[in-house]
TrEMBL record:
Protein name stated in the entry: dihydrofolate reductase
Pathway info: Cofactor biosynthesis; tetrahydrofolate biosynthesis; 5,6,7,8-tetrahydrofolate from 7,8-dihydrofolate: step 1/1
Classification lineage: Bacteria, Pseudomonadati, Verrucomicrobiota, Verrucomicrobiia, Verrucomicrobiales
This protein's GO CC annotations: cytosol
Family: Belongs to the dihydrofolate reductase family.
Keyword NADP on entry: yes
Record keywords, A-Z: NADP, One-carbon metabolism, Oxidoreductase
Example GO biological process: one-carbon metabolic process
DHFR domain ranges (all copies): 2-167
Pfam family, one: DHFR_1
EC number: 1.5.1.3
InterPro entries assigned to the protein according to its UniProt record, in alphabetical order: DHFR, DHFR-like_dom_sf, DHFR_dom
Organism listed in the record: Roseimicrobium gellanilyticum
One Gene Ontology molecular-function label: dihydrofolate reductase activity
Length: 167
């Protein structure tokens, strides 16, 4: 069973602030859609609320929450990362993709064997409450750069796509 994490962050691992995700990078959005297409997803209740209307047929969101008696409109609620992994595995899924946010990335990182990371080459000053991707031990991961996107029309910030696999 593969648990992968997909995230976009700046040089300081900033994921979001009071503005939401503080960049607009169409190529990254396209890559996110492509990678997550028709997959089972693990996400926090906050990110789920923000992404209402985004899910497509084939997506099965497993929403991490400690709330009792709450159910998402689509997908299922789970109370822990191991429960999410077991649920996806029991349904015959080969991969569960964790799409955030910060709290859920932190809870899922110890169980992850792959990370698909967009590294935005900028240090953004957060406005309001910042949300960060958790730190990871670089020596435990093989880090491969898949492609790089320079700053140009439509992409104000340069960024690179990395795939990390646990050694
Ligand atoms: N840049 C990126 O790649 C990226 C990706 C995704 C999201 N984001 C951004 O991240 C922000 C949201 O992140 P966030 O950290 O505030 O929230 P989050 O991780 O999306 O969700 C937090 C909620 O998930 C539940 N939860 C988290 N850990 C849990 C655990 N161990 N057990 C049970 N439930 C748990 C709790 O729900 P209950 O309160 O219901 O118990 C908690 O309030 C948004 O601004 C979003 O735009 C950025």
């Amino acid at each position: 069973m593969l648990l992968s994490l997909i995230a976009a962050m700046d040089e300081n691992r900033l994921l979001a602030d009071a503005r939401g995700i503080p960049w607009k990078l169409p190529r990254d959005v396209a890559h996110f859609r492509e990678y997550t297409d028709s997959k089972w997803l693990l996400l926090g209740r906050t990110t789920y609320e923000e992404m209402r209307g985004w899910f497509r047929p084939g997506h099965c969101p497993l929403v991490l929450s400690s709330r009792c008696g709450w159910d998402p409109e689509i997908g299922r609620v789970v109370s822990s990362v191991p429960q999410a992994i077991a649920t996806a595995e029991a349904a015959g899924q080969g991969e569960l993709v964790c799409i955030g946010g910060g709290q859920v990335f932190a809870a899922a990182l110890p169980y992850a064997n792959k990370m698909v990371l967009t590294r935005v080459h900028a240090s953004i000053t957060p406005e309001g409450r910042p949300v960060y991707f958790p730190p990871w031990n670089a020596s435990e991961w093989k880090d491969e750069t898949i492609w790089q996107q320079p700053a140009e029309a439509g992409h104000a910030l340069p960024f690179a796509l990395h795939e990390l696999t646990r050694r």
